[in-house]
Specification:
The chain has helices at residues 15-18, 25-31, 68-76, 118-126, 142-152, 159-176, 257-260, and strands at residues 3-13, 44-48, 56-60, 78-86, 102-104, 107-115, 183-190, 195-201, 210-213, 217-221, 233-234, 239-243, 249-253. By secondary structure, it is of the alpha+beta class.
C-alpha cells in the first residue's frame, strides 16, 4: 500500500522531511518496512500551501526515487503545511490524475487504503458525487471519489462526521454488491489551516499511522522516517488526529460507522 507524510508547523524546506531523513518518504518508495508491498513506485505527489488559499500540486507517474525534479523542488520549496505521497496502485491506472494528493478548492487529501471490490461499486459510489462537484473528478481512483463524496456529505461543516458518513455509505454499497474485501481508510485531510488524520478499516486492520510533535511542528506519517521509533506515537485504530490553527493536537474516536448504516445494511 501507499506511504505518505503530512506536516504542519514552522515553514521549512520540504526536503528536510521528504528527502533528507534516513528512512525518508523517497527511501520508503523503494524500501517500505510497514507496508503490504515494499515498493511504492506507481507515481508520487506533493501538495503545499503557499501564498494562496488553494494548494499547489506537483504529481508525476515516475517512481519518486528516480525523479530529479522532485528533489530539486523539495530543495527549494518552503512551506508550513504540506503533504507528500508515494503510490502503490490498487487496480487503477498509473496516471498523473490518479496520483495523490488530490485537491478540490482549498482542500488537500491523500489516502492509503482501498475500497474493496472497487470495480464492482465504482458506478454507484460515483453516483454519490453531485453534478456540481463531478467536474472535479479528474481520475479513476477510489480515493478521489471519497474526497468528492465527503464534500457532498458536509465536509465544510464537520470533516470527521462527513468522512464517517461517507465511509458508512460506501460500506453499505459494498455489502449490497457482495464485496468481501475490506474498506481501509488511513488518510490525511487539510483545509490549509488545520489537519485531520484518520485511521479506520472495516476489518479492524487499518494501515499504520504515526505522529510526532516537536518545537518545529507536527509530522504525520505512514511509518517513521528516522531511526528513532520511540519518538513516534501510533494513532489508534478508528481514531482521528486533529491539529487546529494554533497547532493544538487532539485524538478522538471516529463516530461508530456501523451505527450510521441503514438497518438493511447491518450484519446479523
Amino acid at each position: 500500500m501507499c506511504r505518505f507524510l503530512a506536516y504542519r508547523g514552522e515553514p521549512l524546506l520540504l526536503e528536510e522531511l521528504v528527502a533528507a531523513p534516513a528512512h525518508s518518504l523517497i527511501h520508503q518508495s523503494m524500501h517500505a518496512t510497514e507496508a503490504k508491498t515494499e515498493t511504492n513506485g506507481d507515481g508520487f505527489g506533493i501538495g503545499w500551501y503557499g501564498e494562496r488559499p488553494n494548494p499547489g500540486l506537483y504529481r508525476e507517474v515516475h517512481p519518486a526515487w528516480s525523479d530529479e525534479n522532485l528533489r530539486s523542488l523539495c530543495a527549494q520549496v518552503r512551506a508550513g503545511l504540506f503533504f507528500a505521497h508515494v503510490r502503490a496502485a490498487t487496480g487503477t491506472a498509473t496516471t498523473r490524475a490518479n496520483c495523490h494528493p488530490f485537491s478540490a478548492g482549498r482542500w488537500l487529501f491523500m489516502h492509503n487504503g482501498q475500497i474493496g471490490g472497487w470495480h464492482a461499486v465504482r458506478r454507484k459510489v460515483e453516483s454519490m458525487i453531485p453534478d456540481a462537484l463531478y467536474p472535479l473528478r479528474a481520475g479513476t481512483t477510489d480515493s478521489e471519489a471519497i474526497l468528492l463524496c465527503a464534500m457532498a456529505n458536509g465536509l465544510e461543516d464537520d470533516p470527521v462526521v462527513s468522512i464517517s458518513l461517507t465511509l458508512a455509505k460506501i460500506l453499505g454499497l459494498m455489502r449490497e454488491a457482495g464485496v468481501t474485501e475490506p474498506l481501509r481508510f488511513t488518510a490525511c485531510l487539510s483545509d490549509g489551516q488545520r489537519i485531520w488524520a484518520f485511521r479506520w478499516s472495516s476489518d479492524r486492520r487499518p494501515p499504520t499511522l504515526y505522529w510526532r510533535e516537536d518545537d518545529t511542528g507536527l509530522v504525520v506519517v505512514s511509518e517513521p522516517i528516522d531511526a528513532h521509533p520511540t519518538d513516534w506515537h501510533a494513532v489508534p485504530p478508528a481514531y482521528c488526529l486533529f491539529a487546529d490553527r494554533d497547532r493544538r493536537i487532539a485524538l478522538s474516536p471516529m463516530p461508530e460507522i456501523a451505527a450510521l448504516l441503514p438497518v438493511a445494511h447491518e450484519i446479523a
